Structure formats: structure tokens, C-alpha cells
Amino acid sequence: MKTKCPGRIQTPLTRREMLLASANGFGLLALCGMLADQTSTSAAQDERLPQPHFRPRAKNVIFCFMDGGVSHVDSFDPKPKLTEFDGRPFNDSQNPTAMGNRRWLKSPWAFRRHGQAGTPISELFPHIASCADDLAVIRSMKAELPIHSTGVLFLHTGVNNAGRPSLGSWASYGLGSENRNLPSFVVLSFGAVPCGGLEVFSNGFLPANYQATLFHAEGIAIDNLRPADREPRLQEAKLAMLQNQDAAFARSIAGERAVSSAIRNYELAYRMQSLVPDVLDLSRETLATQRLYGIDSPITTKRIYGTQCLRARRLIESGVRFVEITCPLGASNGTWDQHGELKRGHEKNAMDTDQGIAALIKDLKQRGLLDETLIVWAGEFGRTPHSGGRDGRDHHPEGFSVWLAGGGIRGGTVYGATDDFGMHAADGICSMHDLHATILHLLGLDHERLTYRFGGRDFRLTDVHGRVVNEIVA
Description:
Helix content is 35%, strand content 15%. It is α/β, with parallel strands linked by helices. The protein has 3 domains: 1-34, no CATH class; 58-221 and 283-472, Alkaline Phosphatase, subunit A (3-Layer(aba) Sandwich), CATH 3.40.720.10; 223-279. Strands 1, 5, 6, 7, 8, 9, 13, 14 and 17 form a 9-stranded mixed β-sheet that branches. Strands 2-11 form a two-stranded antiparallel sheet. The longest helix has 31 residues, at 15-45.
């Protein structure tokens, strides 16, 4: 082969020279294809192309939901007065008529100071205590009602009734997903229906692609993820047919936006088939890492909770925005709901969760991911410092504890306080709206500006309330 360019000497062109000369052309074709795919996917995935309102401190959230209500006076809020008054008749100075036949009940566990900051933590949580300097403990939380169903909804959605978007949905709506092949909001559940019910993790009035995707604790992570038709061409044909049907339906009802969200969910499920099993394959983790999380434990519930914590780390590494870990199923309304047998129940629950959560903090820190990952540990309320018997505590929304770690949090901090008996939040009272505002703030979102128009008004997670608790922000 010879070139025929006027005015130039005609020289033979070898095959190697031809490939070398056209290499940039092939590369450009590949680059154009990749950029076109990325542009169309981004536009289809989220019409808003969301950006944070300001520089975020955290990119992801892992929410360890302590369903049922952990006793604050037995975990992160020591009360020497309870030991002094143990067994004496209960008397609430703010409500003198609420005496009844109840008596003050001291904690059966000792508290010790941990870390350089000397944060008091109960012996219930020896592993979490080793991470004391990474925690910001809020002791002055306040909920509204002492009822599990409404309390769990309030913790997750900011209201006491169903129908509003969950915290994870709001985070996904505000920031979108970092991985087009994975959902932005994942709930690691120990049952077909997660603790609190499906409405707790709903997208509410937000588009359907912001609802939680449930991953099972054991076995196949997602039901029906692997279709009967393994042939890609058959799956693509079915997806195309569904898109055509949905598009026609959308035109007939003028509801194209809602239907487009459903189409995106179909497309996401299709892409997840190959990636999810790979992300959740823990066999690639070292034996040391598996032992750190307690996955080698003979205790089933402890092993599974540790597995969920490790899965959470792998999911946020892969670009999932918000991961929530629920507790193993409890015997009553919640795992931590010990109206009786307080010592046995709280010790079992702590044993199940303590090592896995501490391992999550240490593992993220070792990998350089803790600074960009916010960990939230919270239940819907606390438990009473008094009891009708001698071995149980009841629901208590008037003052309780939660803690946060990583993602812009000032570690080794204790904020707020309850009174001497742990009855009422007395100093630096923190509402659920304040907690939500703080979490959004750390994600770079202004809780007053993150709104969605529905039913003729702009809704937000914090409604007309909420302030950022800057005292725990680094």
C-alpha cells in the first residue's frame, strides 16, 4: 500500500504504522461513547443533577438504628443519684402527681471514663468504649410520644404519622447517587419487613427512585434480583417493552415524571444484577478484618450484625449514599424494649451490636474513610429511670442519648444533659428536628433549603423547626 498525497513522496505504509497512526482515532471513539453514556445516564438518573448547598463534611451516612429504645441511664448517661435513691418511691419534680407505685431503679452496670476526653460509657459497650474519642454523645435528646410506631416514624421522617419521606430518602434526593449501578439508599434488614415497618423507609411524596432498597441479612441479598431469563438479550427486550408501556401510560395520564422514576428503578435493578453480589462478597476480605467485625463468632445474631456492618462499609465504598442497619428482631415491639428482664435483654443486644459497630469505626478510620462517613447511633427514645418492678424500664421520650461519629463530628464530645435522675432533658435540649438538621448540614445540605413541592406547598424534613447543633461539629 502506498500513499498518494500530491506534492509528497509516496512511501509504503506498514500495518504497524497504520495502527499507530489511527490509535488516537480509536481512543477518541471509545471516549465519545463513554462520555455519551455518562451524560445520558446522569440526566436520566436525576433530572435535578443535585449539588450540596455548601462544602460537605461527610459524603455518606451509616445509620445504626437501635430499635426499641436503649436505656440512656444504662449506656451513655450515668446517674449517681439513681444509685443513691435506688428502691425509693419515684417522684418527678416536674410532675408530682405521677408517683404511683413506681420506684427509682439504679443501673446494674458500672460506668467508666474512656479516651483522652474521659467520656463515661457503660460496661455494656466495651468495644464502642474503645472508640470514645471518635464519638460525640448527645445526652439531651427529646422525642414527642412514648409509642414505638410514632417514635420510629418521628426519628426517621420528622413527623408522627406515615406518608413522609425517610431521612435516607431526603439525603438521596439532595445529593443523588455516586454509583449509577447501585441504589443511593439501602436498608440492611433482618426480616422481610424491617424494624418499624416499610413506611419508615418510604420515599413518601418524593419520586420512587429515592425509596430504600432492602437487603436481607442472610442468603440472597435482594429477592428476584437474578431473573429466570439469564440471557441478556431477553432481559433487554423485556425492559424495552416495559419502557414503551410505561411511556404510553405516562402520556395518557400526564404523569411522565412519576412513571420515569419507575422506569429508572427497572433500569437500576437490571444493572444491579452483576454488581450487588460482587459488592457483598465478603470472602475477599482478610481473615483479620472478618475477625475484627466478629464474623467468626459462634453467636448467630452477633455474627450477622457484624456482617451487616462490614457490608455497610463495602456499600459506602462503592458509592451508596445512605446505609441503615437495623437490629435483629426483638421479642416484643423492639429489640431494646425491655419492660422486664432488663439486664438479660440489654446485655444480649449490646453483645450483638457492640463489636460490629466499633469495628466499623476502626475499619473506616484505618482506610481513611471515617472523615467522609457519618455514623449515627440512635433509637426512637430512651427508657425510664424508674420501674414498676425491679428488673425493667418503660418508654421514655423526655430525655435520652444518641451519638454520632466521623464525617465532621468533634470526637470526644458530650453535649447537653438530663437532670440528676435522667428524667428530663435539662441543658442544651436537642429535638429530632435538630438532629436531622445537623445530619443534613454535615452532608452539605441546608435543611431550610432542601425542599420538595407537594400538595401546593414546599415540604422539608425539618418542617418549620430545627437548628444545627454546631457544638458537636468539628
